[in-house]
Specification:
44% helix; 12 helices; eight-stranded parallel beta sheet; alpha/beta; 8 strands
């Protein structure tokens, strides 16, 4: 072929390749679009796990009570160890709700060591965290499987509680490309037993196990992609109405430094915060929910 024609074909090929790459980048960015006006309020949860003494909790409550206003359209809930719940109910500011970190599969009765959903409700709680990866894995004992977590969630809702329902994959599962397979397996038993109306009492806390307490965190784009996939799964397996309304929190080492960027993503409706919730830094996360979103 003449040299001019070869050069022309080469330039056309390069232009098409650039256009294809640009379209791919644009497509990925659309999938992680920045949060616009949403009817879903933010839900910022704290998970204190098995931490805190009477003295340290008293100090933290005093700091939180003096920390200034919570942004509008933002709900805040702290999941505390059972022993600290009465203190928080009596001393913590009323615009921060209190949650338990677990509830039993059973009702009241001969179940030594268990705390029932009905007892939590009677104590004055509105929320409970269920299915956290640490409980699914177990502490030197058998962990909780997906059916068990779903049954506990159903019982908690029946007793009038709201549930932060935790899901998430391990590092090797993400590397194998099975993140959504894992999340779908964890959600499927719940989708089978909840009515559409009961989903109004559930938030989904997506916590990549590899990012919990490690200091590692998904990029905002990575987290958004998984959140969008979870919402699509809910649409396909529950209903579009529920998918549009359900809050999906991110829980992989969110902190004061990365909260604003994560919460700016369209399908990230809050966080479930571990270590940072035990410090005044928790309010940096909370205020990230009210930070302006760049165009």
């Amino acid at each position: 072929l003449p040299m001019k024609l070869l050069l022309g074909l080469t330039m056309i090929g390069q232009t098409l390749a650039f256009t294809t790459r640009s379209a791919s980048v644009a497509s990925k960015r659309i999938g992680s679009s920045l949060r616009m006006a949403s009817s879903r309020p933010y839900l910022i949860g704290g998970n204190w796990k098995a931490n805190g003494t009477v003295a340290s909790v008293e100090k933290l409550v005093a700091e939180f009570n003096a920390a200034g206003p919570i942004p509008p359209n933002t709900d805040v809930v702290i999941g505390a160890p059972f022993i600290h719940i009465p203190m928080l109910l009596n001393t913590l500011r009323p615009d921060i709700k209190v949650a338990a970190q677990n509830s039993a599969l059973t009702g009241t009765g001969a179940h030594t060591g268990e705390v029932c959903a009905s007892q939590l409700k009677d104590l004055g709680l509105e929320w409970v965290i269920l299915g956290h990866s640490e409980r699914r894995e177990g502490f030197g004992m058998a962990g909780e499987d997906s059916k068990l977590v779903a049954d506990k969630t159903k019982l908690a809702i029946d007793e009038g509680l709201k549930v932060m329902f935790c899901i998430g994959e391990k590092k090797e599962e993400r590397e194998a490309g099975t993140t959504m397979d894992v999340c779908a397996e964890q959600m499927a038993p719940l989708a089978e037993i909840l009515s559409e109306d009961e989903w109004a009492n559930v938030s989904i806390a997506y916590e990549p196990v590899w990012a919990i307490g490690t200091g590692l965190t998904a990029t905002p784009e990575m987290a958004q992609e998984t959140h969008a996939n979870i919402r699509q799964w809910v649409a396909a397996n529950v209903s579009q109405k529920v998918a549009d309304a359900v809050q999906i929190q991110y829980g992989g080492s969110m902190n004061g430094g990365n909260a604003k960027a994560l919460l700016a993503e369209n399908d990230i409706d809050g966080g479930l915060i571990g270590g940072a919730s035990l410090k005044l830094e928790f309010f940096d996360v909370i205020n990230g929910a009210g930070a302006p979103v760049a165009a």
